[in-house]
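B., you asked whether I could sanity-check this one before it goes into the benchmark set. Here's the sequence:
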Amino acid sequence: MASPAASSVSAPPRQAPARSPTTLAVWGSRITLGALAVGGILAALLDVSLSMKAQMVGYLIGMVALNLPHGGYEHFENLRHRRVSFSLRYVVLYVVFLVGFVGFFFVAPVVALGLAFSTAVVKGGHGGVKAMDALCGTEHLQSSWQRGLAAFVRGGAIMLVPLLAWPGVYVTFSTHMVHIFGAAGPLPLATRLSDVQMAVGTVYGLALAAHLGGGLYTGGLSTAWLTDFAETTLLVVYFTFVPMMLAVGLYFPLWYTLRQTARTTAVASDDPAPDRLSLPLTWAAMVVGALVTFGLMAGFYVLVPNPLGGAGLLGGAVAFYTIFVCLLALPHIVVGEWLDSARGIWYVP
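And here's what the prediction gave me:
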Protein backbone atom coordinates (compact mmCIF):
# COMPACT_ATOMS: atom_id res chain seq x y z
CA MET A 1 0.00 0.00 0.00
CA ALA A 2 1.71 3.14 -1.18
CA SER A 3 0.68 6.76 -1.29
CA PRO A 4 -1.13 7.56 -4.53
CA ALA A 5 0.21 10.00 -7.02
CA ALA A 6 -1.57 13.27 -7.65
CA SER A 7 -5.01 12.88 -9.21
CA SER A 8 -5.11 13.13 -12.96
CA VAL A 9 -7.89 14.02 -15.34
CA SER A 10 -10.15 11.05 -15.95
CA ALA A 11 -11.45 9.61 -19.18
CA PRO A 12 -14.95 10.54 -20.33
CA PRO A 13 -17.70 8.78 -18.36
CA ARG A 14 -19.22 5.52 -19.50
CA GLN A 15 -22.40 6.01 -21.46
CA ALA A 16 -25.05 3.97 -19.67
CA PRO A 17 -28.40 3.13 -21.30
CA ALA A 18 -31.18 5.54 -20.41
CA ARG A 19 -32.93 3.08 -18.08
CA SER A 20 -29.90 1.27 -16.69
CA PRO A 21 -29.49 0.91 -12.90
CA THR A 22 -26.57 3.34 -13.10
CA THR A 23 -28.60 6.07 -14.79
CA LEU A 24 -31.59 5.50 -12.50
CA ALA A 25 -29.38 5.79 -9.41
CA VAL A 26 -27.81 9.06 -10.60
CA TRP A 27 -31.15 10.61 -11.45
CA GLY A 28 -32.62 9.23 -8.25
CA SER A 29 -30.00 11.13 -6.25
CA ARG A 30 -30.75 14.35 -8.10
CA ILE A 31 -34.53 14.07 -7.93
CA THR A 32 -34.71 13.15 -4.24
CA LEU A 33 -32.38 15.91 -3.09
CA GLY A 34 -34.06 18.34 -5.48
CA ALA A 35 -37.50 17.53 -4.08
CA LEU A 36 -36.24 17.96 -0.52
CA ALA A 37 -34.59 21.27 -1.44
CA VAL A 38 -37.82 22.56 -2.98
CA GLY A 39 -39.67 21.45 0.14
CA GLY A 40 -37.17 23.33 2.30
CA ILE A 41 -37.56 26.50 0.24
CA LEU A 42 -41.36 26.32 0.42
CA ALA A 43 -41.21 25.74 4.17
CA ALA A 44 -39.02 28.82 4.58
CA LEU A 45 -41.36 30.94 2.45
CA LEU A 46 -44.41 29.75 4.39
CA ASP A 47 -42.60 30.03 7.75
CA VAL A 48 -43.20 26.35 8.49
CA SER A 49 -40.64 24.48 10.58
CA LEU A 50 -39.94 20.82 11.20
CA SER A 51 -39.58 19.82 14.85
CA MET A 52 -36.14 18.85 16.06
CA LYS A 53 -37.51 15.48 17.18
CA ALA A 54 -38.70 14.73 13.63
CA GLN A 55 -35.34 15.84 12.24
CA MET A 56 -33.43 13.56 14.59
CA VAL A 57 -35.66 10.58 13.80
CA GLY A 58 -35.10 11.24 10.08
CA TYR A 59 -31.35 11.49 10.68
CA LEU A 60 -31.18 8.15 12.48
CA ILE A 61 -33.34 6.42 9.88
CA GLY A 62 -31.16 7.73 7.07
CA MET A 63 -27.78 7.13 8.69
CA VAL A 64 -28.43 3.85 10.52
CA ALA A 65 -31.22 2.01 8.71
CA LEU A 66 -30.36 3.09 5.16
CA ASN A 67 -26.66 3.97 5.04
CA LEU A 68 -24.90 1.83 7.67
CA PRO A 69 -24.22 -1.29 5.54
CA HIS A 70 -22.72 0.66 2.64
CA GLY A 71 -19.42 1.49 4.34
CA GLY A 72 -18.65 -2.18 4.90
CA TYR A 73 -19.66 -2.96 1.34
CA GLU A 74 -17.15 -0.40 -0.02
CA HIS A 75 -14.32 -2.25 1.74
CA PHE A 76 -15.67 -5.65 0.66
CA GLU A 77 -15.89 -4.59 -2.98
CA ASN A 78 -12.35 -3.24 -2.78
CA LEU A 79 -10.84 -6.33 -1.16
CA ARG A 80 -12.68 -9.30 -2.64
CA HIS A 81 -10.26 -9.75 -5.57
CA ARG A 82 -7.07 -8.89 -3.62
CA ARG A 83 -4.38 -11.07 -2.08
CA VAL A 84 -4.91 -12.34 1.47
CA SER A 85 -1.67 -10.68 2.61
CA PHE A 86 -2.89 -7.34 1.26
CA SER A 87 -6.26 -7.72 2.97
CA LEU A 88 -4.64 -8.54 6.32
CA ARG A 89 -2.36 -5.51 6.09
CA TYR A 90 -5.37 -3.41 5.12
CA VAL A 91 -7.35 -4.53 8.19
CA VAL A 92 -4.41 -4.00 10.56
CA LEU A 93 -3.84 -0.47 9.28
CA TYR A 94 -7.55 0.29 9.55
CA VAL A 95 -7.59 -0.80 13.20
CA VAL A 96 -4.42 1.19 13.97
CA PHE A 97 -5.87 4.40 12.53
CA LEU A 98 -9.20 3.80 14.27
CA VAL A 99 -7.59 3.28 17.68
CA GLY A 100 -5.36 6.31 17.15
CA PHE A 101 -8.31 8.51 16.27
CA VAL A 102 -10.27 7.37 19.33
CA GLY A 103 -7.26 8.17 21.49
CA PHE A 104 -6.96 11.61 19.89
CA PHE A 105 -10.55 12.37 20.90
CA PHE A 106 -9.73 11.57 24.53
CA VAL A 107 -6.64 13.79 24.48
CA ALA A 108 -7.97 16.77 22.49
CA PRO A 109 -11.69 16.37 21.76
CA VAL A 110 -12.24 19.82 20.24
CA VAL A 111 -9.34 19.51 17.79
CA ALA A 112 -10.34 15.92 17.00
CA LEU A 113 -13.88 17.06 16.25
CA GLY A 114 -12.48 19.56 13.75
CA LEU A 115 -10.54 16.72 12.12
CA ALA A 116 -13.70 14.60 12.09
CA PHE A 117 -15.69 17.33 10.34
CA SER A 118 -12.84 17.78 7.86
CA THR A 119 -13.01 14.04 7.18
CA ALA A 120 -16.69 14.41 6.31
CA VAL A 121 -15.78 17.15 3.84
CA VAL A 122 -13.15 14.91 2.26
CA LYS A 123 -15.49 11.91 2.09
CA GLY A 124 -18.30 13.79 0.41
CA GLY A 125 -15.97 15.81 -1.80
CA HIS A 126 -13.25 13.39 -2.85
CA GLY A 127 -15.73 10.54 -3.17
CA GLY A 128 -18.02 12.83 -5.13
CA VAL A 129 -15.33 13.76 -7.64
CA LYS A 130 -14.51 10.08 -8.22
CA ALA A 131 -18.21 9.42 -8.83
CA MET A 132 -18.22 12.31 -11.31
CA ASP A 133 -15.27 10.70 -13.11
CA ALA A 134 -17.29 7.55 -13.71
CA LEU A 135 -20.78 8.97 -14.17
CA CYS A 136 -20.84 12.59 -15.34
CA GLY A 137 -17.41 13.41 -16.72
CA THR A 138 -14.74 15.75 -15.37
CA GLU A 139 -13.19 17.03 -18.59
CA HIS A 140 -13.57 20.60 -17.30
CA LEU A 141 -11.33 19.80 -14.31
CA GLN A 142 -8.00 19.81 -16.13
CA SER A 143 -5.55 20.05 -13.22
CA SER A 144 -5.09 18.56 -9.77
CA TRP A 145 -5.88 21.88 -8.08
CA GLN A 146 -9.20 22.09 -9.94
CA ARG A 147 -10.09 18.59 -8.77
CA GLY A 148 -9.10 19.49 -5.21
CA LEU A 149 -11.20 22.65 -5.38
CA ALA A 150 -14.17 20.67 -6.70
CA ALA A 151 -13.80 18.21 -3.81
CA PHE A 152 -13.63 21.04 -1.27
CA VAL A 153 -16.72 22.76 -2.67
CA ARG A 154 -18.84 19.60 -2.88
CA GLY A 155 -17.70 18.28 0.47
CA GLY A 156 -17.89 21.72 2.06
CA ALA A 157 -21.58 21.89 1.25
CA ILE A 158 -22.09 19.13 3.85
CA MET A 159 -20.23 20.68 6.79
CA LEU A 160 -19.67 24.37 6.01
CA VAL A 161 -22.98 25.49 4.52
CA PRO A 162 -24.98 24.23 7.55
CA LEU A 163 -22.69 26.25 9.83
CA LEU A 164 -23.82 29.35 7.94
CA ALA A 165 -27.49 28.40 7.58
CA TRP A 166 -28.17 26.54 10.87
CA PRO A 167 -25.58 27.80 13.40
CA GLY A 168 -27.63 27.07 16.54
CA VAL A 169 -28.14 23.41 15.72
CA TYR A 170 -24.53 23.10 14.54
CA VAL A 171 -23.09 24.46 17.79
CA THR A 172 -25.49 22.51 20.02
CA PHE A 173 -24.71 19.10 18.57
CA SER A 174 -20.98 19.85 18.26
CA THR A 175 -21.00 20.60 21.99
CA HIS A 176 -22.78 17.33 22.77
CA MET A 177 -20.19 15.46 20.70
CA VAL A 178 -17.15 16.75 22.58
CA HIS A 179 -18.94 16.25 25.90
CA ILE A 180 -19.12 12.54 25.07
CA PHE A 181 -15.38 12.43 25.84
CA GLY A 182 -15.67 14.38 29.09
CA ALA A 183 -14.95 17.87 27.76
CA ALA A 184 -16.69 20.68 29.64
CA GLY A 185 -17.69 24.25 28.90
CA PRO A 186 -18.61 25.96 25.63
CA LEU A 187 -16.80 25.31 22.37
CA PRO A 188 -14.48 28.02 20.99
CA LEU A 189 -16.83 27.93 17.99
CA ALA A 190 -19.70 29.11 20.20
CA THR A 191 -17.77 32.02 21.70
CA ARG A 192 -16.56 33.33 18.32
CA LEU A 193 -19.43 32.19 16.14
CA SER A 194 -19.91 35.36 14.07
CA ASP A 195 -16.19 35.60 13.28
CA VAL A 196 -16.04 31.93 12.32
CA GLN A 197 -19.10 32.29 10.10
CA MET A 198 -17.59 35.31 8.36
CA ALA A 199 -14.34 33.46 7.68
CA VAL A 200 -16.07 30.27 6.54
CA GLY A 201 -18.54 32.15 4.34
CA THR A 202 -15.76 34.12 2.67
CA VAL A 203 -13.53 31.12 2.04
CA TYR A 204 -16.34 28.89 0.82
CA GLY A 205 -17.86 31.59 -1.39
CA LEU A 206 -14.51 32.29 -3.05
CA ALA A 207 -13.86 28.56 -3.50
CA LEU A 208 -17.31 28.08 -5.05
CA ALA A 209 -16.78 30.94 -7.50
CA ALA A 210 -13.25 29.77 -8.36
CA HIS A 211 -14.41 26.18 -8.91
CA LEU A 212 -17.31 26.99 -11.19
CA GLY A 213 -15.57 29.90 -12.89
CA GLY A 214 -12.36 27.93 -13.43
CA GLY A 215 -14.27 24.97 -14.83
CA LEU A 216 -16.12 27.23 -17.25
CA TYR A 217 -12.86 28.85 -18.36
CA THR A 218 -11.07 25.56 -19.01
CA GLY A 219 -14.00 23.47 -20.25
CA GLY A 220 -16.46 25.98 -21.69
CA LEU A 221 -20.19 25.27 -21.67
CA SER A 222 -19.59 21.54 -21.86
CA THR A 223 -22.03 18.91 -20.67
CA ALA A 224 -19.62 18.04 -17.85
CA TRP A 225 -19.42 21.64 -16.62
CA LEU A 226 -23.17 22.21 -16.88
CA THR A 227 -23.80 19.01 -14.92
CA ASP A 228 -21.25 20.02 -12.29
CA PHE A 229 -22.78 23.50 -12.06
CA ALA A 230 -26.29 22.10 -11.60
CA GLU A 231 -25.28 19.47 -9.03
CA THR A 232 -23.07 21.84 -7.03
CA THR A 233 -25.86 24.42 -6.94
CA LEU A 234 -28.30 21.72 -5.84
CA LEU A 235 -26.05 20.69 -2.95
CA VAL A 236 -25.61 24.26 -1.74
CA VAL A 237 -29.36 24.97 -1.92
CA TYR A 238 -30.19 21.65 -0.28
CA PHE A 239 -27.95 22.23 2.75
CA THR A 240 -29.09 25.84 3.02
CA PHE A 241 -32.83 25.21 3.14
CA VAL A 242 -33.35 21.65 4.39
CA PRO A 243 -33.09 21.56 8.22
CA MET A 244 -29.57 20.54 9.14
CA MET A 245 -30.12 17.24 10.95
CA LEU A 246 -32.49 15.94 8.30
CA ALA A 247 -30.27 17.22 5.49
CA VAL A 248 -27.17 15.42 6.73
CA GLY A 249 -29.04 12.25 7.64
CA LEU A 250 -30.62 11.89 4.19
CA TYR A 251 -27.67 13.15 2.13
CA PHE A 252 -25.56 10.05 2.70
CA PRO A 253 -28.11 7.38 1.71
CA LEU A 254 -29.85 9.45 -0.98
CA TRP A 255 -26.78 11.03 -2.60
CA TYR A 256 -23.45 9.58 -1.51
CA THR A 257 -24.50 5.92 -1.37
CA LEU A 258 -26.67 6.02 -4.48
CA ARG A 259 -23.91 7.62 -6.54
CA GLN A 260 -21.16 5.37 -5.22
CA THR A 261 -23.35 2.36 -6.00
CA ALA A 262 -23.82 3.74 -9.51
CA ARG A 263 -20.05 4.23 -9.82
CA THR A 264 -19.44 0.64 -8.76
CA THR A 265 -22.03 -0.59 -11.27
CA ALA A 266 -20.48 1.47 -14.07
CA VAL A 267 -17.01 0.14 -13.31
CA ALA A 268 -18.25 -3.46 -12.98
CA SER A 269 -19.93 -3.24 -16.38
CA ASP A 270 -16.45 -3.31 -17.94
CA ASP A 271 -15.71 -6.71 -16.40
CA PRO A 272 -15.69 -9.28 -19.23
CA ALA A 273 -16.45 -12.12 -16.78
CA PRO A 274 -18.89 -10.95 -14.13
CA ASP A 275 -18.99 -12.93 -10.91
CA ARG A 276 -22.27 -14.88 -10.58
CA LEU A 277 -21.84 -14.90 -6.82
CA SER A 278 -21.53 -11.12 -6.70
CA LEU A 279 -25.04 -10.40 -5.39
CA PRO A 280 -25.10 -13.07 -2.61
CA LEU A 281 -21.59 -12.09 -1.55
CA THR A 282 -22.59 -8.44 -1.51
CA TRP A 283 -25.57 -9.10 0.74
CA ALA A 284 -23.45 -11.29 3.01
CA ALA A 285 -20.79 -8.58 3.24
CA MET A 286 -23.37 -5.93 4.10
CA VAL A 287 -24.90 -8.10 6.85
CA VAL A 288 -21.53 -9.05 8.34
CA GLY A 289 -20.31 -5.46 8.06
CA ALA A 290 -23.40 -4.18 9.86
CA LEU A 291 -22.98 -6.74 12.67
CA VAL A 292 -19.30 -5.88 13.13
CA THR A 293 -20.16 -2.18 13.14
CA PHE A 294 -22.82 -2.63 15.81
CA GLY A 295 -20.29 -4.60 17.87
CA LEU A 296 -17.76 -1.79 17.63
CA MET A 297 -20.49 0.70 18.48
CA ALA A 298 -21.37 -1.22 21.64
CA GLY A 299 -17.72 -1.29 22.68
CA PHE A 300 -17.38 2.45 22.02
CA TYR A 301 -20.49 3.13 24.10
CA VAL A 302 -18.92 1.34 27.09
CA LEU A 303 -15.55 3.06 26.56
CA VAL A 304 -16.57 6.73 26.56
CA PRO A 305 -17.36 8.46 29.88
CA ASN A 306 -20.53 10.27 28.75
CA PRO A 307 -22.11 8.39 25.80
CA LEU A 308 -25.05 10.78 25.32
CA GLY A 309 -22.97 13.94 25.73
CA GLY A 310 -25.35 15.44 28.29
CA ALA A 311 -28.26 15.47 25.85
CA GLY A 312 -31.56 13.60 26.07
CA LEU A 313 -31.95 10.08 24.70
CA LEU A 314 -32.75 11.04 21.09
CA GLY A 315 -30.31 13.96 20.86
CA GLY A 316 -27.64 11.91 22.60
CA ALA A 317 -28.16 9.03 20.17
CA VAL A 318 -27.64 11.43 17.25
CA ALA A 319 -24.47 12.90 18.80
CA PHE A 320 -23.11 9.46 19.73
CA TYR A 321 -23.76 7.90 16.33
CA THR A 322 -22.31 10.94 14.53
CA ILE A 323 -19.07 10.69 16.48
CA PHE A 324 -18.93 6.94 15.89
CA VAL A 325 -19.37 7.37 12.13
CA CYS A 326 -16.70 10.08 12.11
CA LEU A 327 -14.29 7.70 13.85
CA LEU A 328 -14.87 5.06 11.16
CA ALA A 329 -14.64 7.59 8.34
CA LEU A 330 -11.02 8.63 8.85
CA PRO A 331 -9.45 5.15 8.41
CA HIS A 332 -12.13 4.46 5.79
CA ILE A 333 -10.64 7.21 3.61
CA VAL A 334 -6.96 7.04 4.58
CA VAL A 335 -6.58 3.26 4.41
CA GLY A 336 -9.39 2.45 2.00
CA GLU A 337 -8.49 5.09 -0.58
CA TRP A 338 -5.36 7.17 -0.06
CA LEU A 339 -2.99 4.34 0.92
CA ASP A 340 -4.43 2.01 -1.70
CA SER A 341 -3.05 3.54 -4.87
CA ALA A 342 -3.72 0.42 -6.97
CA ARG A 343 -7.48 0.47 -6.50
CA GLY A 344 -9.21 2.03 -3.49
CA ILE A 345 -12.82 2.22 -2.33
CA TRP A 346 -13.66 4.85 -4.99
CA TYR A 347 -11.93 3.04 -7.82
CA VAL A 348 -12.42 4.33 -11.35
CA PRO A 349 -10.16 2.74 -14.00
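One thing to flag: The CA atoms of residues 160 and 303 lie 30 Å apart. Otherwise nothing jumped out at me.
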